[in-house]
Amino acid sequence: MTTIKSPELTQLKENEEVNAEVTWEDQQNINSFSKLVSKYNDIEEQYEHKKQEKEYIDDLALELELVDEDELVRYKIGDAFILLPLSEVQSRLEQEASQLTEEVEQLRNQLDSMNDKMQQLKTVLYGKFGTAINLEKD
């Protein structure tokens, strides 16, 4: 015996899921999730930018190892370049690298924390609404 699925039955099941009652608490959870996603995307962008900046500084530090000790090196401060001794440039780069490492770590921790909160909200919302709600990135 062959079972044939009718489009009306499939449509009915989808409509049943959509008709789940949205309470005030559910709406607050949806709003919280939306805000978290927006903030997560902003922080993720900052994280990638800081991580790339750190890589550039690390590459620059490696390149400076090839420079003679007696040479003056151009160092950018704001919009201007000044000539500094190699040792001072290297120490400034180390400070910048350590500061960027801390910032990258803080941003990573924020992302992890936000991801945990989003997972909790997903569990609650998918538990109630099933496939009637889409909380995944495209």
Describe the 3D structure.
The structure is a single chain. By secondary structure, this protein is mainly alpha-helical. The chain has one domain: Orthogonal Bundle (Helix Hairpins), CATH 1.10.287.370. 70% of the residues lie in helices and 9% in strands. A two-stranded antiparallel ribbon has the order 1-2. Helix 2 runs antiparallel to helix 3 (86-129). The chain is rod-shaped and about 75 Å long. Mean pLDDT is 86; it is low at 1-17.
Helix/strand layout:
Elements: H1 7-18, H2 24-64, E1 72-77, E2 80-85, H3 86-129
Antiparallel strand pairs: 1-2
The parts where pLDDT drops under 50 for at least 5 residues are: 1-17
Identify the CATH class. Mainly Alpha
List SSEs in N-to-C order: HHEEH
* Mean pLDDT value: 86
Largest sheet: 2 strands, antiparallel
What's the β-strand tally?
A: 2
Tally of structural domains: 1
Strand content: 5-15%
Instruction: Tell me the Rg in angstroms.
Output: 26 Å
> What is the annotated CATH architecture?
Orthogonal Bundle
Number of helices: 3
Q: How far apart are the termini? A: 40 Å
| Proportion of residues in helical segments | over 70%
By secondary-structure content and strand pairing, the structural class works out as: mainly alpha
Keywords: Chaperone, Coiled coil
Organism: Paraglomus brasilianum
Function: Binds specifically to cytosolic chaperonin (c-CPN) and transfers target proteins to it. Binds to nascent polypeptide chain and promotes folding in an environment in which there are many competing pathways for nonnative proteins.
Protein name: Prefoldin subunit 4
